[in-house]
Amino acid sequence: MPRYIGLMKFRKQPTKEIVSRNLELIEKDKDLGVKIHEIYWTLGRYDAVAIFDAPDEKTALKMALERSESMSGETMVAIPAEEARKLVG
Questions:
Q1: How buried is residue 54: exposed, middle or buried, by Cβ count under 10 Å (0-12/13-18/19+)?
Q2: Residue 58, pLDDT above cutoff 90
Q3: pTM
Q4: CATH 3.30.70.920 fits domain 3-88
Q5: Can you give the residue ranges of every domain in the chain?
């Protein structure tokens, strides 16, 4: 299952409603086969980083779209370094 890194920027200051809505979405994501490994709130260019597995890119995109009202960002596919070394070697 592909691993993804989501970099997010809040559109407005987080409130209890935004946080609880995202917790609801995390539960819904489980039904789509998504496993969220970790979520970090960060300082700097992005406000949060999520590391998760999703069955495919369409599912990862669906997750991003469901959160687009409260945050923007970008999602990257993460390839373990050992696998990447095999590609170039």
A1: buried
A2: yes
A3: 0.86
A4: yes
A5: 3-88
